[in-house]
Design brief:
The structure holds 2 protein chains of 2 kinds. By secondary structure, chain A is mainly alpha-helical. Chain A has helices spanning about 5-10, 20-25, 30-35, 40-55, 60-75, 90-110, 115-120, 120-130, 135-150, 160-175. Helices cover about 70% and strands about 0% of the residues of chain B. Chain B has 9 helices and no strands. Classes of the chains: A mainly alpha, B mainly alpha. Chains A and B meet through α1, α5, α9 and α10 of A and α2, α3, α8 and α9 of B. Chain B: It comes from Gadus morhua.
């Protein structure tokens, strides 16, 4: 038996045998095909809030690291930061901006029940001013997940991973809402 | 042809030499099946995948995760010609297994998350860059023979 199997018993709270929740957790084939609206179940929302609360002492580090890794692993993303003197991984402007972005993510956690409504002005900013190609939201989300996994290896279980990944995807959708 | 610096080769070699194939293979495949549940479509004959707990305890999945990870050894041994090294495996995944190649990317992302958890702060920015470069070459090679 492996550790995850034993831990599974302790994590019984995370995954009830509630059929309704399982239906919410597993995307319907239709929503997969259309790639829209894989919405969070109430259990997953709670998981996200809980994990972000645990993470809060390190949120600045995670934000700074995540943006550094974005520009390092996906150098094309530096194209959005040509106005900075130094857009290299670990540079002061990159770290500072990573912290800003993470602050926005935390704000979105508080608006998890209505991301589209809550992020309306941020969406307008991204649509009309920043015009960041939405594919980059996915890339940054991946880097955030890697940092969360590095800093909180025990807490960032597969169940937490899927909930946070879905949340970040929903966040990205809300940000791109006003694009066209 | 992909160019590798000495530093990148050293990083990749080091990761593999410290790798617990059973642990990391199992964790990566399980995480992929849980985070991207549609990937379960390829595992119809693997027993109970009902929820995260059963997936994590499934011995067939564990064994297959190990097998997949050992498949990466080929790329490690042939870093200068990963494309041709995986030509046959690419055809297998295309013609016999009928796996959508986007799934290679999903599994690669899960593998990265699992390795990051294992290595913690040792998974530096430089390490992540080299590691993801390696995986993207593998993913590309595996999808190359699809027709």
């Amino acid at each position: 038996m492996n550790d995850d199997c034993n831990d599974g018993d302790d994590d019984a709270d995370d995954d009830d045998d509630d059929d309704d929740d399982d239906d919410d957790d597993n995307c319907s084939l239709e929503s997969n095909y259309l790639n829209v609206n894989m919405s969070l179940s109430s259990k997953q929302k709670a998981t996200v809030k809980d994990f972000f609360s645990k993470m809060s002492t390190r949120s600045d580090d995670i934000g700074a690291e995540a943006l550094s890794r974005l520009v390092a692993v996906y150098p094309q993303t530096k194209s959005y930061f040509s106005h900075w003197k130094d857009a290299s991984p670990g540079s002061a402007p990159v770290r500072k901006h990573g912290i800003t972005i993470m602050g926005g993510v935390y704000d979105a956690v508080g608006k998890i029940d209505d991301l589209k409504g809550g992020l309306l002005s941020l969406s307008e900013l991204h649509a009309f001013m920043l015009r960041v190609d939405p594919v980059n939201f996915k890339l940054l989300a991946h880097c955030m997940l890697v940092c969360m996994s590095m800093i909180f290896p025990e807490e960032f279980t597969p169940q937490v991973h899927v909930a946070v990944d879905k949340f970040l995807a929903q966040l990205a959708l809300a940000l791109a809402e006003k694009y066209r | 042809m992909v160019e590798w610096t000495d530093s990148e080769r050293a990083i990749i070699t080091s990761i593999f030499s410290n790798l617990d194939y059973e642990e990391i293979g199992r964790k990566s495949l399980c995480r992929c099946l849980i985070v991207y549940p549609w990937t379960q479509r390829y595992f119809g004959g693997f027993g109970n995948l009902y929820n995260a707990e059963t997936i994590l305890c499934n011995p067939l999945i564990a064994a297959h995760g190990t097998k997949i990870l050992h498949g990466l050894d080929r790329a490690l041994k042939n870093m200068d010609d990963i494309k041709n090294t995986y030509a046959e495996l690419s055809l297998l995944h295309s013609d016999k297994l009928h796996v959508d190649p986007d799934n290679f990317r999903l599994l690669a992302d899960c593998l990265t998350v699992v390795i990051a958890a294992k290595m913690g702060p040792a998974f530096t920015v430089e390490t992540q860059v080299a590691w993801q470069k390696f995986l993207s070459v593998v993913v590309s090679a595996l999808g190359r023979q699809y027709h």
